[in-house]
Amino acid sequence: MKSTIRQSNSLLILFILFSIGYSQAQNQYVPAPENMKSREWFQDAKFGLFIHWGVYSILGDGEWAMNIQHIPIKAYEKLPSFFNPTQFDPKEWVAMVKASGIKYITITTKHHDGFAMFDSKVSDYNIVKKTPYGKDVLKMLSDECHAQGIKLFFYHSQLDWHHPDYFPRGNTGGDWTGREDKGDMNKYLDYMDSQLSELLTNYGEVAGIWFDGMWDKKDADWRLEKTYSLIHKLQPAALVGSNHHRAPYAGEDFQMFEKDLPGHNTTGFAPEQKIGDLPKETCETINNSWGFNLQDGSNKSRKELIQYLVKASGYGANFLLNVGPMPNGKIQPEHVALLKQMGEWLNTYGETIYGTRGGPLSAREWGVATQKGNKVYIHILNWQDESLLIPSWGKKIKSVKLFIDKTPVKFSESEFGITIKVPKDKRDDVDTVVELELK
Ligand code: JFZ
Questions:
Q1: Residue whose CA is at the smallest distance from ligand 1 atom 15
Q2: CA of 372 to the centre of ligand 1 (A)
Q3: Looking at 52-61, 282-291, 321-330, 386-395, which range is the least confident one?
Q4: Phi and psi angles of residue 109, each rounded to the nearest 5 degrees, phi first
Q5: What is the CA(389)–ligand 1 centre distance, in A?
């Protein structure tokens, strides 16, 4: 009797040791030194341009058109033959990006429709093989980004409405696609890994991979470990992130928040999302669409966009702002104009955004704080009263100035905190930045 208890005890201990070992093996991701460097760069960069561009742009109905209109694969496959973006000029795109104060681009390489916007050898369903344009727009763009010093991330959809082996199907891409009721998910994931290898081999330095689509099949085995280690092996400096709306998995290098500031869940996409310690990024549309939408005129204002960037910085997150280029290869002129205005604002206020970290105060009703070295920038986005009381965080203050013209700002310190007062005519409707220098 005793010996059986002892035996089962030691079995239990063995089992516990084994499970601990196993879970550690799962989490044994040690980012390479160059990856850690990229993370620092990423956090300093603050502002990226998201680009959703694919054959769907022809329909002018967003990147989900195939699923929303229930277009079967057979019909959708006609679209590439109309895709001819003769006015695409990567020089112009990247110059516009630079003039807008944007430091990196994240572009769709393959969206849920499964069409590769690059020269893929593992599938003919790609821009070079199937469109009259016949050129690899990603190669053209990556060459230009490298020439002009802009980093390039690749969005890649794990979800696929076109590939027969994406099976069992998920919540989207149902029977209407016309695929047979069979497939081998592992074969699909091999194919995905092959396309990722192409992207990480043929386009020079890739800043990172931006995954999306796991939410389509929440409980599937996505073989993340295999895919992530492949990426880290091919380009150790490349950052991996995924739009799965959960806490980060081992092998990821940054955490993203879709259409929300970290910790907010206004979209309802992310009830389970926890904020981790990784660098953060929040993405948002310039109007209400990701892919080109002919009827979407609901552009955000200059003020809304700048304030979004400022708030994201205060939360310690980058702002990835999206545009959906038109089928002719141009970015909508009204979007170019808005981006340029952000660039002009950043020309003046960039010092209070780039290279900063969020805090030392968390976000407030009135605005946010960013910090760098011995400076704290208080960004007041809404003035409610004549003066503003800021909780003190225990550091001695040397001076308080208005950032824009360095004029002194009246302030007093008390047991209640720091009170500052900026005269009405010195306040800015978009962002009044007060610079605190610490002792
Ligand atoms: C995803 C894509 O579906 C979309 O097309 C776009 O690329 C965006 C950046 O990312 O958007 C999602 C992802 C998940 C949910 C909703 C939208 N979700 O889980 O409800």
A1: 269
A2: 33
A3: 386-395
A4: -95, -35
A5: 39
Q: Which is it for the CA torsion 140, 142, 147, 149, positive or negative?
A: positive
In ligand 1, the atom with minimum distance to the C-alpha of 111 is 7
Evaluate: CB of 265 within 6 angstroms of ligand 1.
Answer: no
pLDDT tens-digit map of 355-389: 999 999 989 999 999 999 999 999 999 998 989 99
State how far Cα 48 lies from the chain centre.
Answer: 8
Residue nearest to atom 1 of ligand 1 (CA): 212
User: Which of 45, 112, 39 minimizes the C-alpha distance to 321?
Assistant: 45
| Centre of ligand 1 from the C-alpha of residue 132, in Å | 29
User: pLDDT for 48-89, tens place per residue?
Assistant: 999 999 999 999 999 999 999 999 999 999 999 999 999 999
Residues in the chain: 439
Two tokens at 23? Answer: 């879970």
How many CA atoms are closer than 13 Å to the CA of 86, on its beta-carbon side?
2
pLDDT, the chain, mean: 93
From the CA of 324, how far away is ligand 1's center (Å)? 15
